[in-house]
Queue: 2 jobs
Job 1
Amino acid sequence: MICQECKQRPATMHFTKIVNGEKTEFHLCEQCAKEHGHMFMLYGNDDFPLNNLLAGLLNFQAPMKEVTANAFPNPDLLQCETCKMTYHQFTQIGRFGCADCYRTFARYLPPILKRLHSGNTAHSGKIPKRKGGVLHLRKQLALLKQKLQELVAREEFERAAEVRDQIRSLEDELRQRGEGEM
Amino acid sequence: MSFEKFFNTAVSSWMSQEGPDSDIVLSSRIRLARNIVDFRFPTLFNSEEAKQIVALFERTFAHRSYGGAGRFELLKMSELQPIEKRVLVEKHLISPHLAEDSPFGACLLSENEEISIMINEEDHIRIQCLFPGLQLAEALEAASGLDDWIEGHVNYAFDERLGYLTSCPTNVGTGLRASVMMHLPALVLTQQINRIIPAINQLGLVVRGTYGEGSEALGNIFQISNQLTLGKSEEDIVADLHTIVQQLIAQERAARQALVKTLGIQLEDKVFRSYGILANCRVIESKEAAQCLSDVRLGIDLGYIKNIPRNILNELMILTQPGFLQQYAGGALRPEERDVRRAALIRERLKMEERRKMEGDER
Ligand SMILES: [Zn+2]
Ligand SMILES: [Zn+2]
């Protein structure tokens, strides 16, 4: 096979790339692969090697399928209503078709996310401002409630009373804003 | 076109600036992946959806300015020549994926080329900020500000529990990829790098050389980036990467000191031989060029070579790639022709420095 870049030297390096669900194969000679690879690296195309790994990772889900077999006789047939992507397609491509896929495939995602993100399954970073108002308040509320329990356990009642008042005013605010925004 | 004119238009302003720890850290980059509610992801969207997204960005952000970055220009991939796209990739402003496989891809590029926002790449939106030297926190702040600016006009796909929803599950959560490009010649020469890379990988970070395994990295340049995007805040992800990078900087500096002590004149000889090759070669392959540039850069850092700017490595690693070589030549080149052009471009660049120095001396 001849290198498809220089069309001169024999192709010794072979890459697979998946774009829009379609597989494209690259056959390059060593020199062109270096120049090509060089390009990938210098740009720092973060997902290039990772995505190839990912397709392998997602296909390697045999134990999980057994566990969930009762809930869905054939998880591969599960399909996102919005974009029509099936779970089987997702495991092949390693990409979601739309934001709703996350909800559709929700029951299969935790083990995948855990593996990709060192055991984590929940976001604890930035929140968009638009959704933010209410979300921020809810997060703050959860933290305060936790704090209240700790203070009560330590019998620090004076500070606990302060926190309780903060919780009340937050709950009030949530009630008002929640109605408007949700 | 004269070489100086080519050079001056080819080098982005961020490339010729120095940042903190510029002797070892070439650049810091932050990328945020975002998607717009109510559109399918680029994996599956149709051309109509793709065009609507590009139109939305053209209407809302093109010709507007943000902060000190200057005005944004919208570049549609379908309207660019292959060499123009390649040059954007080699300048790190767009990804190869956007250039090659995204028929409805576009890019909002800031005047100073510090910020690029890719549209319809793997996600609808990829915000990228590129700073010289080690400036991860600064780059994050800039990217986050832009993120707010964009979010003021579009609704992001966001889930209360999972965070920003991305096309690939490796990006969900913060959608953040922070990466640092480092020049580590002494860790390579002392072979410590082979021990360090697996250790860094174990910390949940990814180290990438140009190709192949660690010690084979082209020009001794390595990219270190975070792997997980879920469960940690943006600030924590960046702080963790920053800590590791600082440790690497310390190790590289120690290894350089050790090399100077043990090799002495031999190290100086290696540096000046490489300089001799670059200043005189007539044909040079990218691998040899990268190695010689790395040696010369080390020589500049160690004070052996004076009067050549430090950023010559960053510049020439970028300018000697096929896209730029072909732009410089004004047409398509076969690989053997590129090797000749590469040699000429490097010689011209070094001569330009000599001229600058002489002009400086006369003054
Ligand atoms: Zn080839
Ligand atoms: Zn879907």
Job 2
Amino acid sequence: MHKHIPNAVWAWLAAFVLLALLPVLPEPVGSAFHQELGAKVLIMAIFALSLQLLVGYTGLVSLGHAAFFGFAAYTVALLAPQSEAGNGWWLLAASVGAAALLAFVIGLLVMRTRGIYFIMVTLAFAQMVYFVFHDTDLGGGSDGTYVYIKPEFTLFGHRLLDLEQTAHFYWLALLLTAATVGLLALVLRARLGHALVGIRHNEQRMRAAGCNTTAYKLASFTLAGGLSGVAGFLFAVQHGYVNPEILAWHQSGNALLMVILGGIGSLPGAVLGAFSFVLLAEWFQGMTKHWQLLMGGFIIIAVAVLPQGIAGGFVWLRERWQARRRSPLPAVPKPQEGTP
Amino acid sequence: MDLTTFLIQCLNSVQYGLLLFLVASGLTLIFGIMGVINLAHGSFYMIGAYMAFALSSLVGNFALALLLGIVLAVVLGYLLEWCFFSFLYEREHLSQVLMTYGLILVFEELRSILVGDDVHGVAVPAWLDGSIAIGNGMAYPVYRLFMSGVCLAVAAGMYAVIRHTRLGMVVRAGSTNREMVQSLGIDIALLYRVVFAVGMALAVLAGMIAAPVASVYPGMGGSVLIVCFVVVVIGGIGSVKGALVAALLIGFVDTFGKVLWQQAAGVLVYVLMAAILLWKPQGLFRQGT
């Protein structure tokens, strides 16, 4: 039976099991600080994974992905009761639903455009959402709003997770990351995923083959929006605070950076990209107040020398290594066909 | 709203629209001709505003500061194209978006290191510091008229150069078929470098003349960039005429939005964009018009 399970699934499972061990490791490694940092990485990983579906598999370069992330975070902050813990299931579902709905509505409008227009229009729409929250009192204006008490996840009256504990929050983030990876892997194996990849390669041909490409792209956009809502939910719960900055286009730029940094068109790439991005930002912030200068410089160099991202860099290194292992051998003439 | 207020708001709309056009035309020039999507264009505008602040106190003469700023912008643009943009032409839009995004971060932090994060004001030069009476005891500042005048002059100059000179002909040809122009013996690398420098100079000029009216603050590049994108999307990518029409349209919507419906002013521009996209997904004008 287990012959049918591909290696990649085992690799993912092993990775998630190892990551789940982080909070139980001894102090310097499994400290609360590292758990929090780990959760930050996982939140960004979900965000990057959702954008990967658009950029890497559907070929839609969106520069407005923060709109859905931020919209979900605001949904949690606005719906969570102030005096008691909210219902985690309901808040998660509501924020994901809200993000997906927003993505559907924006998607209906932006699917009419393509290429460079798509980049600009998604950016402009995200900016519109930013201004709605920034200029009105809906979410506290530019000051933002708070999630006073972290929501509770209960099952049959039994409390499953205590999110005030960093370890529990970390495990929730890990669980949701695993769910996102699983869902995306299934979608990509399904008809929808194949259609999306086909659209990325040649939309015209897909349309000629009788495929309603706009509907498929819209489905991809909505799904990506909903998944980034998962990240937005976790973000609001972790920080207990949301402000319009999480809707700003820098956030969209960062997501795109993670995807490209990790490697376009690869799910592990998105996770790897988020991992490197969060750790780099943390490292740079520790070095100087002007850490964005280092980040900017890093981005420029990365674009110049790593056109295929980190995952592509690994592939390149492996190929070189294999080539070097092969090259010292003298060229042995191939035995002629038929000779013993 | 009485007639005088209406008239003043109209003048404000035109002035804002023309200023937007000045920034957006640089963006359109760089995109339309070189095919590079330049997110750092807003930063160029910011650089201009800070140049106005630094140079006018250094030189003491606004006109001289303007001239010096443009020269500096051309030199800077030439160097930037040489260092960063010249190898982006062959790459896909994604790389361009990312690299210019990196440049924004670098410019913002350099600004923060060199000038700090304070908001600065730039004085209107004495010879432009007056106002013209417009009925009912209302007055309109001369400086705003001067801004509109500069923008109009640049727009007219650009149109004349692109339509009626040999250089303009080469630029137009280069935007359609790079290889063909190159094989006719024209140094396309140099041409691109010059076009980029001019595009940057347009944004810097806009930032410089806007500084006395808009004041100089961190993050000013970002907000201008997004509005410019809206201008370019509404007008039609690569169309200078479209950029002009769209910029004026946005000038009116934004200015009157702020007067009539304060709360929604920030969003109105995007609603306009959505409506136009529903009607014409490729913008109002086609490329090359």
